[in-house]
Amino acid sequence: MVGAVLLLALLPILNRLPADSALHVSDFVVSVTGKWITYAVLALAIDLAWGYAGILSLGHGAFFALGGYAIGMHLMRLIGPRGVYGHPVLPDFMVFLGYRELPWYWLGFDHFPFALLMALAVPGLLAAVVGFLAFRSRITGVYFSIITQALTYALMLAFFRNDMGFGGNNGFTDFKELLGMPLNTPGARAALFYASLASLLGAYWICARVVGSKLGRVLVAVRDAESRLRFLGYDTTRIKLFVFVLSAVLAGLAGALYVPQVGIINPGEFSPGNSIEAVVWVAVGGRGTLVGAVLGAFSVNALKTWLTSVAPDLWLFALGGLFVAVTLFLPRGLVGLLRRREP
User: What gap in Å lies between CA 251 and CA 279, rounded to an integer?
Assistant: First the structure.
């Protein structure tokens, strides 16, 4: 793990070497690896809830997208008069749609700390409401999965509407800068890369502290025998709600790191397929291992990047086949396979 982190940390440095150097790393590799790191944070969030508490959410893409939209709103506010229409306050899409003033829910997003706070708080608050209503009613298993999938689909439809004030189908793009740094420069790419890597390490540390504590053992008990644990006097609703909210906050953080690196956010990020794909990452890497979640995010997305460039029409078939193969032959994922080969 230490070697993998050091290797990742070297990529932006190698990117600054001359292009004819044998060790030179292209801008594309740095950008796509930075994106994979944010996916690894999302995978950790899902694994914390699903792998240890047995809460299978098929809507974590919604928390990821909400975090991305919060930072996207900040980036849009920073464009100011440099937009196509040159309006000092309103983003271009609002000028085009005839907005006369900034909606109230956009206020404050010209400040980065506020936007970052919203990127964490909004997914956490949504998870708290949905989780409280579901867990209090003892909705579990496939029924909870369907509810979360319906949630992200409903949000996708809502954000597609132009009158929501979030750019409609086009979403947000054409970002200029972040924290005074012009985007699409080697320095900005490196800074975002290291911020993502530091966030991955921080998220891993938080998850490891949770699962390695007494609470972590209780979470496993919730996953394996919730009714028996409830009979022993534990408030399983509060326990599940805590881990679900924490998982949503980490997913929002991943989305906030993702948007500045890819340069766009639109309602497509709410697609239920994205949430299902993220669950596949965790299953492939190894559910309930943390390391497996990170490994699965990197390995599946590396396969996706390669296969979509060679045969893009085959990716969905490959993803489905991969999930079936892992379910049948590698129930413990890649981590289980590696541990089986250890002497």
Answer: 13
Q: Is residue 168 within 8 Å of 162, Cβ to Cβ? A: yes
Whole-angstrom distance, CA of residue 165 vs CA of residue 170: 11
The mean per-residue pLDDT over the stretch 52-79 comes to 94
Q: CA nearest 205: which of 150, 250, 173?
A: 250
- Rounded distance, CA 57 to CA 322, Å? 20
Report residue 4 as tokens: 């993998």
Asked if residues 38 and 297 have their Cβ atoms less than 8 Å apart, the reply is no
The pTM for the full model equals: 0.94
Q: Return the DSSP state at 181.
A: E
131/113 Cα distance (integer angstroms): 27
Compute the Cα dihedral for 220, 336, 9, 25 and give only its sign. Answer: negative
pLDDT tens per residue, range 153-204:
999 999 999 888 898 888 998 898 888 888 888 889 999 999 999 999 999 9
Cα angle for residues 279, 148, 138 (degrees, 5° grid): 110
On whether the CB atoms of residues 36 and 298 are closer than 8 A, the answer is yes
Burial label, 100 (beta-carbon count in 10 A; 0-12, 13-18, 19+): exposed
* C-alpha to C-alpha distance for 73 and 68, rounded to whole angstroms: 9
User: Which value, in Å, is the radius of gyration of the alpha carbons in the chain?
Assistant: 21
**How many Cα neighbours within 13 Å face the side chain of 89?**
9
Q: Helix or strand or coil: residue 320? A: helix
Rounded Cα distance between 192 and 35, Å, is: 10
Whole-Å CA distances, 156 to 59, 143, 159, 250 = 11, 20, 5, 20
**201-246 confidence digits (pLDDT tens):** 999 999 999 999 999 999 999 999 888 998 888 899 999 999 999 9
CB burial of residue 190 (10 Å; 0-12, 13-18, 19+): middle
Please give the pLDDT value at position 294. Answer: 94
Average pLDDT over all residues of the chain: 90
Q: Name the residue among 178, 158, 1 with its Cα closest to residue 79.
A: 178
